[in-house]
Amino acid sequence: MSKDAAVFARGKVKGEVRYPPCEIQDEKTAAEHSRFHIYPMGTIAEYRRTIPYKSEKKSFHEKTGRGSFEVFQYTFRIPSEEKPYTVMWDYNVGLVRITPFFKCCQYPKTMPAKMLNCNPGLREICHSITGGALAAQGYWMPFEAAKAVAATFCYHIRYALTPLFGLDFISLCIKPGEEGFEHMVIDRNIVRRCTEEATGYRSISREGSQGQTPITPVSASGAIKWETRSLRPRAAGLFDPESGYYSDTDRSDRYVASPQTSFTWTAMNTPRSIAHEVKVPSSAPLMAGNAAGDGCGAPPNSPDSSSSIESRDRQLTCRIVDGDDSEDTSPRSAKVNMVSEKRRRPAISTTDTRAAYALMQLHFADASLKDGSKKRRASS
Predict the structure, then answer these.
(1) Other CB atoms closer than 10 Å to residue 269's CB: what's the count?
(2) The dihedral of CA 78, 81, 82, 87: what is its sign?
């Protein structure tokens, strides 16, 4: 068995049978069918076949919206020949494989392409299958156009094609010698109707394929539950000038179909524009008095001394700026001013002041002891 031989296996049809076989016979047609060895006459519809479309060219799927052929088929032989020819057509959309008609009438391989050139608009609705199953390779043409073209050159095999085109095909065929025989030119209205028919079948096929696609679940309100968002590229090393820290995550980044939650922070206290000036007691008068040896000021350990020192250390003056447009009134500027004032006038802690008083007290005590010993020695 050759690779392109017809395969007959019983099975159920798929989809709607819009183009059934014509197996009506009278005595004349029955005799002719027997002469052409048509098989399986009378049970053609029981042998359906699915031929997947496998080819690098995607034009068939784009033009029809289909990925396979659902076909009926039968074979016939020329009385003087032993080679069988397979007649094949798609019973859903009516595409007919016309290549065997040219072969059995001894036309060259280039004749189908020439025929398409003679009929403007016909090439756009025909399909040249070059890959996949050998049985499906060749030219496929809409049903009405294929019937009209075959009638111009298939007079000798007209009875062999009645199971496909019907009994009226016998009277439609042009006899050899008559005008139009082998010209293979058909009425443009046929091409127009086939074009409209092909567009309708393409829409039906695409709607059927979309109906098999899972539908996204919809909420009770009629809106899609999860909204699809596009991913944004993640920015690396973003710097926050307020906090001084680096972040490797963009805060505007969101994940696809994730619930969105926004947070808003409200300040409890309204910031005021405050510029701070810190006044620290100068140590120059204190050190000058101690160096003179007059013991001015209270001793460091006395309560008055401690309270006066702490009161002086805590002296601050605040300059509040209200309604002054010439200065920056933002909270950040107030913070910067306060830090700059502290840097210009470094504060002296209470512990350091007490330590200085203790050292000076020891120094004065030691000096007084030396003076006393000298006076005692002089008196003695």
Answers:
(1) 5
(2) negative
**Token code pair at residue 310:** 């702490």
Distance CA 47, CA 87 (A): 13
Mean pLDDT score, 122-149: 91
Which of 88, 83, 95, 99 shows the shortest CA–CA distance to 154?
Answer: 99
Closest CA to 161 of 88, 70, 79: 88
Nearest in space to 275 (alpha carbons), one of 346, 347, 327: 327
> In which band, very low, low, confident or very high, does the pLDDT at 6 lie, cut at 50, 70 and 90?
confident
Distance CA 160, CA 37 (A): 9
pTM over 0.70: no
Query: Is pLDDT larger for residue 355 or for residue 274?
Result: 355
State how far the Cα of 126 lies from the Cα of 335, in Å rounded to an integer. 81
Tokens for 201, please give them.
């079948």
pLDDT tens figures, 166-199: 999 999 999 999 999 999 999 999 999 999 999 9
Mention every residue, 6+ apart, whose C-beta is less than 8 A from residue 53: 60, 61, 66, 67, 68, 69, 129, 132, 136
Q: What is the pLDDT of residues 211-243, one digit of tens each?
A: 544 444 444 444 444 445 555 554 444 444 444
For residues 4 and 134, is the Cβ–Cβ distance under 8 A? yes
- What is the average pLDDT across 257-268? 48
Q: Measured in Å, how far apart are the chain's first and last C-alpha atoms?
A: 152
Give the distance, in angstroms, between the CA of residue 90 and the centroid of all CA atoms in the same chain.
36
Burial code (b: 16+ CB inside 10 Å, e: under 16) for 132-160 equals bbebbbbbbbbbbbbbbbbbbbbbebbbb
